Amino acid sequence: MAATALSVNVNKVAVLRNSRGGALPDPLRAADACLRVGAQGITVHPRPDRRHITAEDVVALRPLCAGRGELNIEGNPFAAARPGYPGLLELAREARPEQVTLVPDGDGQITSDHGFDLERDAERLAPLVAEFRALGARVSLFVDAGSKGLSRVREIGAQRIEIYTGPFAEAHAAGRAGDALARCAATARSARALGLGVNAGHDLSQDNLGDFLRAVPAVQEVSIGHALFGEALYAGLERTVKFYLALIATA
Ligand SMILES: CC(=O)[C@@H](O)[C@H](O)COP(=O)(O)O
Ligand SMILES: NCC(=O)COP(=O)(O)O
């Protein structure tokens, strides 16, 4: 199976930029550097409150990624459009990403902290999945490790799951990742048996990614942002991305 793709989430560059209301640092320059050293994709999670990535950033990333890497747009497909935030479906219409990752985040959440309740949510997700697919996007659903109802992902036409790795990362930092890893591995195996692709993300880092990839089979893509840009503050962005690529290649 092909090696795991690295999709760098550039949200945190936009956090720094927006903190002073100017244009620097530029998330597009960061994305360009990541792609230049070999990252296979760029992920963004535009949120309705425009705390970091804006709709304008998303549209501008499209030509920058073209032919160089996949554009993955994350978001809650039910979040209402408002001034400055056209909604995930409209963003996908404008940016035509290779992938959309549907995440059940509430508007006020500080970050993503859970996956969909697939048995409850699948029915109302189905028409949206069809719309995103009609735009040519691969659809991935953000799910908790151990989530029930994985078969519903396939039934409504989504092609992948993204395993929420926050609990694994927390357990790993506490030196007790065994159970969390086993849940992630079992979820990945169940998804593959259903013909679904497997992505993973949230709080992955240089410290925990190797253990994760060695334990969880057939992960097609990891999306990493928060830890990566924190590490890059000290080591530099291109060097940090190259480190992740080497770590993935040797996991
Ligand atoms: C879905 C996921 O785990 C990440 O996209 C996370 O939501 C990053 O969002 P923030 O950068 O706003 O924390
Ligand atoms: N889907 C996870 C993502 O895009 C980045 O999450 P994080 O590395 O910023 O926690």
From TrEMBL:
Enzyme Commission number, as recorded: 2.6.99.2
Location in the cell reads: Cytoplasm
The positions flagged as active site in the entry are H45 (proton acceptor), E74 (proton acceptor), H202 (proton donor)
Provide any one GO MF term from the record: pyridoxine 5'-phosphate synthase activity
Class of enzymatic activity (EC top level): transferase
User: Which Gene3D superfamilies does UniProt cross-reference here?
Assistant: Aldolase class I
Reactions that this protein is recorded to catalyse: 3-amino-2-oxopropyl phosphate + 1-deoxy-D-xylulose 5-phosphate = pyridoxine 5'-phosphate + phosphate + 2 H2O + H(+)
Q: Write out the entry's keywords from A to Z.
A: Cytoplasm, Pyridoxine biosynthesis, Transferase
The UniProt record gives the binding positions of 3-amino-2-oxopropyl phosphate as N9, R20, D203, G225, H226
What does this chain do?
Catalyzes the complicated ring closure reaction between the two acyclic compounds 1-deoxy-D-xylulose-5-phosphate (DXP) and 3-amino-2-oxopropyl phosphate (1-amino-acetone-3-phosphate or AAP) to form pyridoxine 5'-phosphate (PNP) and inorganic phosphate.
Q: How does it assemble?
A: Homooctamer; tetramer of dimers.
What protein name applies here? Pyridoxine 5'-phosphate synthase
Q: Look up and give the organism this protein is from.
A: Pseudomarimonas salicorniae
- From the UniProt record, report the name of the gene that encodes this protein: pdxJ
